Amino acid sequence: MIERVAIPESVPEGALVEPLTDRESQVLRLVASGCRNHEIARMLRVSIKTVEFHMSNIRGKLCVRSRTEAVVRACQIGLLDLQPRPLPALVRWS
């Protein structure tokens, strides 16, 4: 599914308008792992509005319009390295 995301070409490969802060990088990693804003807010002990603010900054710095595009762009320029992980073993109840 990620292969179908159209990424704007306004930012050259490997370039950022401005570097991500440590907190923005942390939020981006959580987004990439599948967390929603309210989950990120709970984990980081901040408000949902603060997470939304960080996401807005991330999208602006990566020159993208969506969370998915942000993750894809971050992978393209080496900010994220998403390695497929094996699924946990299923627990069988007797």
Would you kindly provide a written description of the structure presented here, covering whatever features stand out?
47% of the residues lie in helices and 0% in strands. With 94 residues, it is an all-alpha fold. It has a domain at 17-76: Arc Repressor Mutant, subunit A, CATH 1.10.10. The protein starts with 21 loop residues before the first helix and ends in an 18-residue tail after the last helix.
Poorly predicted segments = 1-9
CATH class of the domain at 17-76: Mainly Alpha
Helix/strand/pairing category: mainly alpha
- Radius of gyration computed on alpha carbons: 15 Å
Q: Topology as H/E string? A: HHHH
Give a short account of the largest sheet: none
Q: Which architecture of the domain at 17-76 per CATH?
A: Orthogonal Bundle
Number of helices: 4
Under CATH, the topology of the domain at 17-76 can be stated as Arc Repressor Mutant, subunit A
> Can you count the beta strands?
0
Shape: globular
Helical content (DSSP H or I, runs of 4+): 40-55%
What percentage of the residues does DSSP assign to strands (E)? under 5%
> Average pLDDT across residues?
83
Can you identify the CATH superfamily of the domain at 17-76?
Winged helix-like DNA-binding domain superfamily/Winged helix DNA-binding domain
Kindly, what is the distance between the CA atoms of the first and last residues, rounded to a whole number of angstroms? 36 Å
